[in-house]
Amino acid sequence: MPTPGSPRGLRGSAGPGAQSTFHCARLAVGATLQLVDAVLTGTVHNGLALVRPPGHHSQRAAANGFCVFNNVAIAAKHAKQKHGLCRILIVDWDIHHGQGIQYVFEDDPSILYFSWHRYEHAQFWPHLRDSDADVVGQGQGRGFTVNLPWNQVGMGNADYVAAFLHVLLPLAFEFDPELVLISAGFDSAIRDPEGQMQATPECFAHLTRLLQVLAGGRVCAVLEGGYHLESLSQSVCMMVQALLGDPTPPLSGPMVPCQSALESIQSVRAAQAPYWKSLQLQGATPRLSSGTHSLEGRPSTLLPAGLELKTAAAHAVSALSSLLDQLCLHPRSAVHTAAALTPLDAALVLPPDILHLEGSTQETQAWTRPHESLTQDQALTPLGQVLYLLDKILDGQVGSGIAATPAPTLNATLDVVIRRSLSHGTQRLFCVTMGQLDRPPDLANDGRSLWLHIGGKEATALSMFQVSMPLHGTTGGFLNCVLSLVLPLAYGYQPDLTLVVLGRTHGLQGPQPALLTALLQGPAGGRILVLVEEESTPKFAGVLAQVLHGEAPPSLGPFSVPFPEDMQALMYLRQQLEPQWKMLQVTAPS
Question: In this protein, which residues make up the domain named Histone deacetylase (predicted)?
Answer without folding.
Answer: 19-243
